[in-house]
Amino acid sequence: MDPIQQAMLKKSHAAKLERRGKLISLFCISLIVVVVLAIFFFVASRGLATFFTNKVNLWRFLSQTTWSPAVKDASGQPQVGALPMIVGSFGVTLLSAVIATPFAVGAAIFMTEIAPNLGKKVLQPVIELLVGIPSVVYGFIGLSVVVPFIRNIFGGTGFGILAGTFVLFVMILPTVTSMTVDALKAVPRHYREASLALGGTRWQTISRVVLRAAMPGILTGIVFGMARAFGEALAVQMVIGNAALLPTNLISPASTLTSVLTSGIGNTVMGSLENNALWSLALLLLLMSLAFNLLIRWIAKKGEIK
Amino acid sequence: MAKKELVITSRDVHLSYGDFEALKGISLNFKKNQITALIGPSGCGKSTYLRLLNRMNDLIPNVHISGEIKVDGQDIYASGEDVVALRKKVGMVFQQPNPFPFSIYENVIYGLRLAGVKDRATLDQAVETSLKQAAIWDEVKDKLHESALSLSGGQQQRVCIARVLAVQPEVILLDEPTSALDPISSTQIENMLLELRDRYTIIIVTHNMQQASRISDETAFFLAGKVIEMDDTKKIFLNPKEKETEDYISGRFG
Fold first, then answer.
1. Can you give the residue ranges of every domain in chain A?
2. Coiled coil where (chain A) (predicted)?
3. How many whole angstroms separate alpha carbon B41 and alpha carbon B207?
4. In sequence order, what E strands does B208-251 have?
5. What is the pTM of this model?
6. CATH code that applies to domain A83-305
7. Measured between CB atoms, does B165 come within 8 Å of chain A?
């Protein structure tokens, strides 16, 4: 074989480099996939053990209201009713999202449409700063300011869903706001021009065209905020009161899936029913965050401009 | 030709973006029910001038405007002038077709909705009339409730024109309305403009000199922020007075 042919058949240096880069990035992504799958597998195997090993009825788990896994009731079934926590989690999530949405949309409109310079120079950094504050700080402020405030106004202990809602409202506000800002900024300038040129006022233009065009992005922001609220553990645990009771009002101590998990997981023995029951709560959380994720993807897909 | 009534008059209009003077004293008058074309090389200020006539330049920061522009005898830059009312009277079609991401129907009645019109029959009637005037009714009458973004570029532009017509303006400003379209769509729009001339005063900015010569009654030639010449389109193209006009029209620059 002559040397030229040999050189042509051999892999070039560039091709080898290319291959090496491909392998390195493939390795990185596989590691992430393996970790995610391992977490799912672990949580699922523990969480499902409650139902398969300990023979707890799934429906009873979701619908009973008494949470004391160590105690068996009259019929000999362990008392693992997760309904109070489910209601608590959904309660604080939905309420905080409902309160945060108008504030976030209003703030975002101000930052992008009304005072874009002030928005970019002052408000955007402030919002980003808020996103970065650790949740324990929010929880601590909630504990020392919000809870006493509620106690003074409504009586009781001050702990409860209302306090949790308030803390989560402040926590998710920056998330929802900055995502709404992005959605509004992505609305093409020519939509605004067209509306104004047809004799639209600024407010008509914002409410009829800009918000409508940005709606999928805004909804995604709200669902992101809800996902964050649903999964937040520490700050909520500090202000909600941690009583695994079905909440009857907003100012009596309650609990969420996350707050029961954080306060309980260190005090149970691996493999026991008490421990498995907590893993079932974790599995529920995981499934819910999966649902939020799918919801976000679905909204994004629906909102694509065709 | 009988002397036609003036709809828009402007005197010594200057405009600067920061330190850059884009318009250096423009005085132009526009006659009712005719098509006036503004031609000139890129960056000569013709689009900037057009956008003054319905105050779209208000949206740009750091713009300084002086001089006088009157629509129907009323100074549109006087303090307290109602910009919203002005823009209803002086409609605008942009270079890029820019329908809203709504249905064709909702696009056409957008201006009426802003004005608070709710009666279904009135709206239906306005949609049909405007789309017919914009010569697109036959193409879209069976899909009025589909997204306007699903149409082709030329169809979108005609829906945008219908959207302006629905508001029943007196003047229609068109900023290079066919430069993003194919020749067939351009011809359709040109024919439509000729049809509309009887009812509206039309001012069109165009890069396409054949287009200006085909459809306009009068033509103004812009160069470097000034109007070099304005006259009947025939005179401008066949017998221009100024050397610059002749050079531009014969393709020696621009």
1. 1-53, 83-305
2. none
3. 7
4. 218-223, 226-232
5. 0.82
6. 1.10.3720.10
7. no
